[in-house]
């Protein structure tokens, strides 16, 4: 029997993409979610509890940690989520692959590499650094094997809880103004969900990935204006495009906690925000990533079909 790969947070955007990638590669999968299990691979467990995490991870060779608290609750809840998961992975004798992001670095000059210090001063960046430290400390102490795959803002089929979801794709299909959060003319690394999943699974399959963080491969950085042009063209044109600036973010944030939370990381949106994925490509290449035009077309198709 093939090794078991367990996906925590399997009904979320990244988790469901990882399940699809593992299945395509022929792996045996357990898709763990907090809600009722669906499908032949589904498994219900509350991994915020030690008992639930141990049950979810039992028998696993690799565990992909794709679950997370609500965005506005990261600082309060993320460490408490990770502790039982570490216990569950350790009990199973498994390897942990963490679906991570770029918040740990804080404001930087130039492209981000994995060697940058974890200098974020805002609460969300600090808690992500704390969580990463917990995971890598567990690896260094021999409790378990672990690796982290970091990605920037994502889009793709199933990507609805993101600033590049309904505000862009659903709006374009409805003929509404398509809004980019931040400066329209700053280059920004955007990750396509199936590419994130492919990178995470490669880390899960590769022993040489263990013990460090990696920037997952993505297509070239693109400005918001150029990205929205691709969306408008694929959607048939028509909708206006606009940037949502700091003032509008503050106003909307008065009654929307998710938008309010964007304020503490506005440096990701008013200047270049570019991830360097050279290390991953050199270690695990050749790597194929999805061109933005192809990713936009597939995402719009999904919104037409499944997000109505």
From TrEMBL:
NAD-dependent epimerase/dehydratase domain residues: 6-209
Entry-linked Pfam families: Epimerase (PF01370)
InterPro entries: Epimerase_deHydtase, NAD(P)-bd_dom_sf, NAD(P)-dependent_oxidoreduct
Cellular component per GO, a single term: cytoplasm
Any one GO molecular function term: aldehyde dehydrogenase (NAD+) activity
Record's protein name: Nucleoside-diphosphate-sugar epimerase
Species for this entry: Actinomadura namibiensis
């Amino acid at each position: 029997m093939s090794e078991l790969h367990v996906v925590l947070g399997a009904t979320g955007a990244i988790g469901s993409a990882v399940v699809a990638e593992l299945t395509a590669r022929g792996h045996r999968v357990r898709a763990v979610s907090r809600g009722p299990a669906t499908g032949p691979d589904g498994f219900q467990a509350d991994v915020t509890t030690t008992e639930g995490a141990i049950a979810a991870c039992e028998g696993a060779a690799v565990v992909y940690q794709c679950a997370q608290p609500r965005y506005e609750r990261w600082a309060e809840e993320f460490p408490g989520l990770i502790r039982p998961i570490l216990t569950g992975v350790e009990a199973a004798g498994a390897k942990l692959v963490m679906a991570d992001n770029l918040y740990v670095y804080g404001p930087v000059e130039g492209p981000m590499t994995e060697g940058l210090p974890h200098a974020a001063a805002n609460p969300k960046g600090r808690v992500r650094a704390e969580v990463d430290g917990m995971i890598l400390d567990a690896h260094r102490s021999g409790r378990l094997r672990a690796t982290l795959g970091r990605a920037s803002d994502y889009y793709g089929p199933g990507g609805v809880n993101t600033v590049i979801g309904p505000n862009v794709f659903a709006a374009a299909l409805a003929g509404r103004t398509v809004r980019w959060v931040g400066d329209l003319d700053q280059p920004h690394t955007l990750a396509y969900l199936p590419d994130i999943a492919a990178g995470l699974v490669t880390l899960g399959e590769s022993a040489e990935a263990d013990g460090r963080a990696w920037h997952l491969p993505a297509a070239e950085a693109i400005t918001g204006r150029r990205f929205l042009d691709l969306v408008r063209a694929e959607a048939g044109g028509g909708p206006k495009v606009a940037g949502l600036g700091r003032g509008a973010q503050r106003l909307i944030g008065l009654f929307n906690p998710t938008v309010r939370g964007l304020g503490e990381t506005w440096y990701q949106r008013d200047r270049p925000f570019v991830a360097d994925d050279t290390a991953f490509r050199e270690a695990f290449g050749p790597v194929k990533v999805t061109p933005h035009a192809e990713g936009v077309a597939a995402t719009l198709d999904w919104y037409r079909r499944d997000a109505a």
